[in-house]
Every structure is written in structure tokens, then in C-alpha cells.
Design a protein that fits this description.
Helix 5 crosses helix 6. A hairpin with a 2-residue loop joins strand 1 and strand 2. The longest helix is centred in the last third of the chain and has 25 residues. The protein is globular and about 35 Å long. The protein is mainly alpha-helical. The protein has a single domain, classed as Hypothetical protein af1432 (Orthogonal Bundle), CATH 1.10.3210. The protein is built from nine helices and two strands, in the order ααααααββααα. The termini are far apart.
Length: 177
Amino acid sequence: MTRPQIPTPEQCEELLASTGTPEKTVIHSRIVRDVARRIGRDLKWLRDRGPNLALINAAALLHDIAKGESDHAAAGAAILREHGYDEVAEIVAAHNNLDYSGELPVTEKEIVFIADKLVKEDQMVTVIYMYDHKLKACADDARRTKYLKKRKETALRIKSAIEQETGKNLEELAIAE
């Protein structure tokens, strides 16, 4: 019997536990999952063929499974590939560094990326706050500043695309039930 491509919520929780993911990270990931699910659900209502909500749920919940490791996105993706979850791994690998041109419709990858940028630890924040906070902290590191500015531009393109598709402010959409 082959394993499904997308882990169930229970399998996601088991993976987080088996890898020793700290509770603080699990709480963050659950909030990111909830935010991503709300964004994905709103986009799904607007399209005949919307984003895959099961894929969004799994990728968002597992995006920081290797948090604390060097290049945790790549390390997390490797763990997921070992378990046969290649599609989820692809999203996890991109959740920290994604190139996005602004094409519509946004995909599961962009949804998880932006949901992660709306949650700092266990608190909801704006995209601007998330990046301005980080940029201020590394103002004396030109290379890191350049990298963060590029990521901020990507996040703002995704924010704009989602707002264009939904007609709603992203931060409001992310907290709406």
C-alpha cells in the first residue's frame, strides 16, 4: 500500500513530535496553518479550481519542522521527502526564500509563504512589520539587508496578488473566521 502524497493532520502532528520540534515552534506552525487555511479557503471560493486546502494545511503545519537547523527550510524539505511527501517538501523548501513575479492565481506555495510572514512567534503581525523589524535588527549587515529587502518585495507582491484576487486586505483576511 502506498502512502498518500499529503499527510493528514494527525500524521503532521506525529512528524512534528517524532522530530522533536519544540512546542513554541509547533504553536507558531499551527497559527500559520490557520492563517494559510483562511487565505486558501477565501481563494477557493473565488475560483472553480482553487488551491488544495489539504496541501496548504500540511505544508503550513510542517514548514518549520527543522527550525533551528542551518537552512531549516531545506532540512525540513529533506525530512518530508524521506517520508514520501514530495509536494509538501517543495512548499516547505520555499517558505523562506521564494521568487514570485506576481502572476495570478497565487498557489499553495505563495499562500504558505505569506501566512508565515503574518505570524511572528505566536502573534499576528503585518507584512511590513515583519520585515521592517528584521531589517532594523540587521541594519549593519549589508548582505542580509539586501536579502531581506528582496524577500519583503516578494511578500508585498504576494500580498497585492491575494488582495487583487479577493478584494480584501490580506491582514484582515488572515484573521477573519
